[in-house]
Write a structure and sequence with these properties.
This protein is of the alpha/beta class. The protein folds into two domains: 2-112 and 272-294, D-Maltodextrin-Binding Protein, domain 2, CATH 3.40.190; 116-268, Dipeptide-binding Protein, Domain 3 (Dipeptide-binding Protein, domain 3), CATH 3.10.105.10. 43% of the residues lie in helices and 21% in strands. The chain is built from twelve helices and nine strands. The strands form three sheets. Strands 3, 4, 5, 8 and 9 form a five-stranded antiparallel sheet that branches. Strands 1-2 form a two-stranded parallel ribbon. Residues 1-5 and 14-29 have low confidence and may be disordered. The structure holds 1,1-dimethyl-prolinium. The site of 1,1-dimethyl-prolinium (PBE) has 13 residues, from helix 2 and helix 10.
Length: 295
Amino acid sequence: MRKSFKLLPLAAALVLLTAVLFGCGGGGGGGGTQGKIVGIEPGAGIMSATEKAVEEYGLDYQLQDSSSAAMAASLQKAINNKEWIVVTGWTPHWKFAKWDLKYLDDPKKVYGGEEHVATIVRTGLKDDMPEVYAMLDNFYWTPADMEAVMLDIQDGMTPDEAADQWIRDNQEEVNKWIPEQQAAEKGTVTLGYVEWDSEVASTHVVKNVLEDMGYEVNAVSVDAGIMWTSIGTGEYDAIVSAWLPGTHGDYYNKVKDKVVNLGPNLEGARIGLVVPAYVTIDSIEELNDVKDKFQ
Ligand code: PBE
């Protein structure tokens, strides 16, 4: 009895010593400290893609959870100090207009190629709200359109102000989305989205168009996983934030038999690892050689 009590602290000390000597959780091969990739919200498709990239390229890097806003703030800080930083990035995004950035080459194509953003609606919406369905089906814009809204929000407008401004600047285009047959009875439309800058922009444009048509709109911001399960259960009427075929492929496959895919609302989207242009590497394959620069 007494003997084992004495051994316990000794065992704990040994574990501690081992951890100190071998650097708890660090290393994984090349030695030294791991590099750091600044990520965004844990549920984002780009986060699972990056975990896959770390594995497939054997990167001695740690992917850090964060938020889209915190990622942008880290980028700003690093650029102010001319420090190296690698973040999970995507297009369309205002950061490319604000700073000189580049994607790292991805020869293994872990991040897929060009993507589109699709509009997904719940089963039954077409019968319940035909003109809402028609408007959502017609909704289509370009990366430049989306960036204009994102930049206005970044420059201080609220998402509703920026969306409203864009609609007024593009009223002719927007009028083409609105069906001629207007329902006598309007109702409430629920849109689900995630607080990603691109999705804040698109969701608020659609929200404001529907409001102009006389509907009440709830734009509900949630985690990506919840957005996808809730469109599957029909709790939301629509999402305009489905990044396909790659980024949200797994989420989509789980609900695709229960929802209606209205096809692309934007083409020319992309995800990957992004660095400031002054960073002198060009490929994900080079990251391990310079991990000390990405602390
Ligand atoms: N994003 C923006 C999302 C999709 C839209 C690239 C951050 C994601 O990774 O899931």
